[in-house]
Amino acid sequence: MSHPYSDATPSTGEPGDKSGLAFLARSLRRRWRSTAAMTVGLSAASIAVIAVLPPHYSASAYLQVDSRPNVVSIPTVLPSIELDVGGISSEVEILKSRELAEAVAGHLHLAEIPGAKSHTSWLSGLPQLHEMAAEVKDWLGIRTPPPHDRVVTWLMDHSDIKPLGKSRVVRVSFTADSPETARDVANAYAQAYIARQVSQLDTAARGAKTWVDTEIGRVRGQVREDEHNLETFRARHGLTEDDSKLLLPYGQLADLDRDLTHAKADYAAARARVDEVRRLQRKGDLEGAVPESIDTPPLKALREQEANLTIERDGLLQHYAPTSGRVKLIEDERDQVRQSIQAELTRIAGGLQSEAAIAASQVASLQAAVTAAKSGLQGSGDLRVELAGLERTAEASRQVLVTLLKRRSELDAQTSLHTANARLVSPAALPHKPSFPLILPMALLATVGSFATAAGISAARDLKDRVIRSTDELAALVAFRTLGILPRFEPARRPNRLIALSADRSRFSEAVKNLYIRVAQPGHPLPRTIVVTSALSGEGKTTTAVSLAMLAATLGRKVALVDFDTHAPSIHHILQLPLGPGLADYVLGKTATLGESLNNPLPNLAVLTAGRADGFNVLARAERIEALMAELAQDFDHIVVDTPPCLAVVDSLVLARIADQVVHVVRWAHTSREVVKAAAHLFDRLDPDRIGVVLTQVDIKRHASEGYSDSVFYHKSLNRYYLG
């Protein structure tokens, strides 16, 4: 990237780099006032809209869900296995279901959406408009759903149910126009879910009991049939129950003795379990180990629930007093669980007592059988085999019936101990602050968005801005050398213009010195004939030409300043000289000698004003003009020629062909790129090294604030080196 004092001349690329953060930063610096005003306006409008938004309140209830609920079902009647309903995700989907939303609507007795009447009251006050809206809906085929469906849909749309991380805690949130509605609906969701779980347990238990009752009826019929067959066989062969033992072979007598021994052992074990249960009931404390034979699944579940409640109570006591509501709630729940444990122990004791009675009857039966078998053995082998088969069949049926009766007893006990697989950890409290709108975050976001919008509009405006603002843009636009920049100067027709132009140690004079040095091509002396032109009027070419001439004169050079802009002359105003005789008078032959047309306002400076040029034609007087330039070149070190704009007339093109150097003036932040390109195209047949461009009328403060590279030569720290 070139700067005002560099000869580097990039020939490609879009001027000024219209992309990236650098462009955006320059745009914001240039238009910071409009950007700030737009940001303030947009922010104020956005905050006003946010302030009038209707508030919404959110309340949250927290549920702890077990992914393996204690559900009694048919498969647990015989084999005891655990079930998994799909984990926490499945429970969350159940909470989001339409069925649960309908249960919440029924629990809260919601016949319509809360607040719906207030939103539509203005329409109900206009019956004709209301009827017209209904007719339009009918014509469009829009069917309004029933109020119940609208309520259920509203509940589902405004609820937010999700698990907390990887825990088993589910947050049930609801958003409504009033805090009371948000709290009530969130709690109703939690209660409806727990009630649903209990209902599922009851339904499963009733199904299991129905299946067991059916099986008991069937097995009882089978037992009666098997015992009837056994009694029929005995009656047909004249055997009593005691005589049937005589049909047993000697080998089975030993089996009877062994069975009797096992029966006695089973009876002793049953009695021991009954005694152990009684002891536990009297003790009333199950914190220690419980025998495996007594610790049934319901008892395990109750003990685990009691332990969890005890742990939770101990944790609450670290933060709350023993008399606090939460601690009392946990203690009441633990007392209920302990009562359930006592009830379960009573049921287990009853079952074990029944088992002991059955075992005792089996011992008595086996003892009688052994006694009868020892009194004598008789009968044939076929009768023994058939009788033994009938007895085994009858015994097997009786064992199945006993098992089913035990399961029925367990189901009866479990039905009274049903608890849901979820509990309410924390009910929803009444929200005191709205969850929407969040004034401060939304206001900050609106401010940021407003600034981004304002910055985008400023950038868009600059993208459409086609004027030249730096020598970097000039260098990227044309193939000519950049000669630097000239700061803004006073208007050309001020009375003190001559004094100001000759002032030394000003920013402008230093910039003119730099331009004077750079007008020469690298490796060549300063040119004799310097043509100053521009594309449009008002770009500062006359000021530049006068400044170059006066500077060279103060350096001791003999300088001729020629005002070739005969269409709109201005040098005579700046230097306070008469308009004629001048250039036109001499070229048209109205004056005999060149000396009669020259003026000397300053030492070493001769000025040839435009003169009176009615009908002056440069092309028709080209030979005369070349002779004039040659004559001036004999007497002066420099000839500085001020020409009219090159896009207006051809005068500057004619003089450019005989000039040693052409200085093309471009006005900062005013001349467009298209104009510069059009002007440069006029000089495309000339040697580019003979042409240089200079940026004039630069507002140094604005130029520096926009961050261009050539602004560093006008840094504030350099001000002490200038007088003005």
What report would you give on this structure?
With 724 residues, the protein is an alpha/beta fold. The chain has 4 domains: 18-53 and 438-467, no CATH class; 56-237 and 418-436, Bacterial polysaccharide co-polymerase-like; 250-376, no CATH class; 469-719, P-loop containing nucleotide triphosphate hydrolases (Rossmann fold), CATH 3.40.50. The chain contains 23 helices and 12 strands. The protein has helices at 21-30, 32-52, 87-96, 98-108, 116-124, 127-140, 147-157, 179-236, 250-283, 297-317, 325-375, 381-415, 439-464, 471-477, 497-501, 507-518, 541-554, 571-574, 583-587, 622-635, 651-658, 673-682, 700-705; strands at residues 57-65, 159-163, 169-176, 422-426, 481-487, 529-534, 559-563, 598-602, 605-608, 638-642, 661-667, 691-698. Strands 5-12-11-6-10-7-9-8 form an 8-stranded mixed sheet, with helices on both faces. A 4-stranded antiparallel sheet has the order 2-3-1-4. The longest helix is centred in the N-terminal third of the chain and has 58 residues, at 179-236. The two termini are 29 Å apart. The model is unreliable at 1-19, 68-86, 118-123 and 491-495 (pLDDT under 50).
